């Protein structure tokens, strides 16, 4: 019983709570995440977690399809494209997490083997630190995400109250905010519940992609470790598994930063949302860059070696540290280093200027609240 409450300092133990939270929202349907031994992790296509993920993927897939159809079948509009991108992005993110879930048991087994070759933590506090930092980071990111989502609902309710075509406030809310569905389908309480349920899943996943990249880098925040080559190999293995998700995180945040634009009613929500998006983007870049920073720290020790202690192996080690780029990547297109933060900032400024002009040239959209619905179903 004592062992069940003691921390072993492994990454598998540290992310247990985060994975449990993810599974509430149908992501990462891996069985055995509560087990202390990572060898008990397994993935099954016929588990309850998997069927829950299938259900949510089907619903989000339907919403993505309808958003795309609404975008291409009506007059092209930038806001319709943003909606289609949002649901399509989340559908693909769910697919990538499903692919990662299948490889998660093997990845955690290798991660634990590497952990066991490194110097052990000194005491219980050190072993618990990684888990506490990941939990604190998770609470902060998801609390900000929840605040942003609640504020968006307030802004949406304010807008739907001005909808002249519908008297029922619930129906007005869904017709004004999910026009890509209720332009074609009759509103009902069940359809409204499912629509909002899948929308909440998407909003959670939208933030969880960033959180996942951040927490995957927490393991490398500690002091300089031995077995440098093993740790570098582990970084490469982790990157092979999550590089697509890293690319999704960066590209999604940049896209929504650039397309955000204020209106008179949504000014508070706009600025709050914009600050959160920029903060999340920089947090992902900075936290992921810590992997590269830690990989360069051994050179500080190597430079203190006296001439009498210098040898061929030390020279090889120094060359390996200085020449190898040990970092997470976005599909191998770019490495997550501190230089990327400057590049991301430049990209945000550049594309904001371009898209501001784009918005000025775009014709105003028709008020979707006033569209005539096709009651076919």
From TrEMBL:
Entry GO MF terms: sweet taste receptor activity
Gene Ontology terms: biological process: signal transduction
Subcellular location, record wording: Cell membrane
Membrane topology, record value: Multi-pass membrane protein
Matches recorded under InterPro entries: Gustatory_rcpt (IPR009318)
UniProtKB keywords: Cell membrane, Membrane, Receptor, Transducer, Transmembrane, Transmembrane helix
Keyword Transmembrane helix: yes
Transmembrane spans: 14-35, 51-72, 197-214, 269-289, 340-358
Pfam families assigned: Trehalose_recp
Cellular component, GO, one term: plasma membrane
Family (UniProt): Belongs to the insect chemoreceptor superfamily. Gustatory receptor (GR) family. Gr5a subfamily.
The protein's role, per its UniProt record: Plays a role in the sugar gustatory response.
The protein's name in its UniProt record: Gustatory receptor
